[in-house]
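User: What would this chain look like folded?
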Amino acid sequence: MGFGHVLTVVSFITAMTSGLRDHEQGVAGGLSQLPQFLGAIGTACLAAIVTARTKALATTTSPALAALGGLRTAMLTAGFVCLVGALLAVLFLRPTQP
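Assistant: Here's the prediction, encoded as structure tokens.
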């Protein structure tokens, strides 16, 4: 994924910023990186949730059930975040003008 991903990201940013004025390119390039940063933060948060919940359940259940409980909690959290994002998009998305 590493080398191919770099080629894709560079061409994406070039295509995205090619029609912009010079003073707008920095902002557009920064905004294009936002999904990668948020994805990294989200992955770290979900890993922390899995770890915390697994440790909490490990004292009362088997290791396999504790791990499944941790994963379940993290996936429910991710689903809730997606649901909130979809709700916010529906509420605040403005219709485009033709």
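Residues 2-92 form one domain. If you want, I can go into more detail on any region.
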